[in-house]
Amino acid sequence: METLKISSDTLFILLGAIMVLAMHSGFAFLEVGTVRKKNQVNALVKILCDFAVSTIAYFFIGYAVAYGVDFFAGAEKLAAKSGYELTKFFFLLTFAAAVPAIVSGGIAERAKFNPQLMATALIVGFVYPFFEGIAWNDKYGVQAWLEAAAGAKFHDFAGSVVVHAVGGWIALMAVMLLGARRGRYGKDGAISAHPPSSIPFLALGAWVLSVGWFGFNVMSAQTIDKISGLVAVNSLMAMAGGIIAALVSGRNDPGFVHNGPLAGLVAICAGSDIMHPIGALVTGGVAGALFVYMFTLTQNRLKIDDVLGVWPLHGLCGAWGGIAAGIFGLKSLGGIGGVTFISQLLGTLLGIGVALVGGAIVYGALKAVVGIRLDQEEEFNGSDLSIHKITATPEREAGW
Question: Which residues lie closer than 8 Å to 50 by C-beta, 6 or more apart?
Answer without folding.
Answer: 97, 100, 101, 104, 116, 117, 120
